[in-house]
Amino acid sequence: MKQKIEQLLASNAGFSTLALRIPVGIIFMAHGAQKLFAWFGGYGLSGTGQFFESIGLAPGVAMAFLAGSAEFFGGLFIILGLLTRPSALVLAFTMLIAIVSVHLPNGLFMSNGGYEFGLALLAASVSLMLSGGGKVAVDNWLAARFSVQK
User: Fold this and answer.
1) Nearest to 27 by CA among 146, 132, 125
2) Engineered SS bond to 125: which of 26, 78, 91, 109, CB 3.0-4.6 Å?
3) What is the Rg, in whole angstroms, of the alpha carbon atoms belonging to the chain?
4) Is the pLDDT reported for residue 85 higher than 70?
């Protein structure tokens, strides 16, 4: 078990992941805050839930809570470099659902409601899932704690 945790937290990536983690985490947190708290012009759980119901993601409020929580807390964890790989996996899955259920029929370009922004966030999430948090991440502290404990 200890070895699996160490593998989950380990990262050979350098400082470059920090340059990816900060903006991507901020974007995810902001989108999650729109869904959860109606901040930044968002519709909150009720409004987002109604939209989710209208596109067949039911129950809408529960799905809005799951998506908003994944984005808000996943974004926070990505910024911190805390459980980077599992957080990035959840965010990648969230983006895949958003692309397929909302944006794919509109084509590639954002100007038409397309999937290009979701695809960029999906790619960033997959990159972080593969690389881990890098040198400046809470994961490193956690990995050190697990490796010294018996």
Assistant:
1) 125
2) 91
3) 16
4) yes
